Amino acid sequence: MQQKARARLRIGLLAPLVTPVPPPAYAGTERVVAMLASGLHERGHDVTLYASGDSDVACNLVSVLPRSLWVDGFKGDGRQLAMLVLAAAWRDVQEFDIFHSHLDSGGFLFARHCPRPVVTTLHNRLDTDGMPQLLSEFDDVPLVAISESQRRWSPDANWVDTIHHGLASSDSLFGEKPGDYLALVGRMTWEKGVEEAIDLARRTGIPLKIAGKAHERDEQEMLDRAVKPAVADGVAEFMGELQPNDRDALIAGALATVMLGSWPEPFGLVAIESMVAGTPVIGRRAGGLTETVQHGQSGFLVDDLTEAEAAVERVADLDRAEIRRYALEHFSPERMIDRYEAVYRALLGKEASDAGH
User: Fold this and answer.
1) What's the rounded Cα separation, in Å, for the pair 235 and 166?
2) The whole model's pTM is what?
3) Element (H, E) at 326
4) What are the structural domains, with CATH classification, of the chain?
5) Is the torsion defined by CA of 77, 81, 86, 92 positive or negative?
6) How far apart are CA 302 and CA 166, in angstroms?
7) Whole-angstrom Cα distance, residue 114 to residue 108?
8) Contact 116, 135 (CB under 8 A)
9) What confidence tens digit (pLDDT) does each residue in 96-154 have?
10) Upper half-sphere CA count for residue 225 (Cβ side, 13 Å)
11) Rounded CA gap, 250 and 163, in Å?
């Protein structure tokens, strides 16, 4: 039994095509996929990643397109081109024990008809864009949520686990002392609380440094409407998309990272990046942040800008070393990979059991 538990698995990872894996700048899903690919490979599994050819991973790489969509100037989310990933994986289906899809609902039909088990991690909110209907129809597809909040509107879907992202590493920069600015990292959209963060900076007199993506039309509109006037007024500094090292330095040097978007973040990866740097999070009390940020310990969860102002007054008193310790303990790559390995083996064991009957 012990030998079987340690068996090497042949795993196919299916990634979106919008950015390379890992991404050079902004992206969340692809960073998680990169960590999974690396960790599973290091544990001796035979891992193949289906992604764009400009990806840089230690495991096997199947180049679905020579270059990622955003590199080629593609506008949009590229969901329709997920079919290219699935077609490539289908051609190789006999070479794998299990597939792990990060294509959200785009891989549901593949998962239903594939002769190998397919588990899907859902990375987006599940109460819009027809997702409730899709989850109801595809109730045979094994699913992993990234927070309990994300899955709460479809409790009867085929959930096999809830697995928080794990990217917290002791190699990350540590900001031992509170900085003199607030940080915002993310897309320039209303969901990320850009205007609220700017308003908070105006109210408190503490400058805001923004590192964000502004490719799409709505992102450009936010940049023109809210960010550029704040920059002109000296309230904010817009730094564009930063390379990982520069982004980490920005976060580590901040007084706090602000995440004030009035929507339920399915997870909120920036919160983990912030906490592992020792920088507390001031976030909206909604979505996945309610499961990752410890109110009064690793940051503050607020309901409005008045509470956010109160949080700014108190945030320097939080223990940044303890914040980092908490993040490393609860959001390590090892913990995430352990959980996914258990999911893979459980699904393969179920398949073997079903075949025996």
Assistant:
1) 33
2) 0.91
3) helix 320-330
4) 2-166+332-356 (3.40.50.2000), 182-330 (3.40.50.2000)
5) negative
6) 24
7) 10
8) no
9) 999 999 999 999 999 999 999 999 999 999 999 899 999 999 999 999 999 999 999 99
10) 12
11) 27
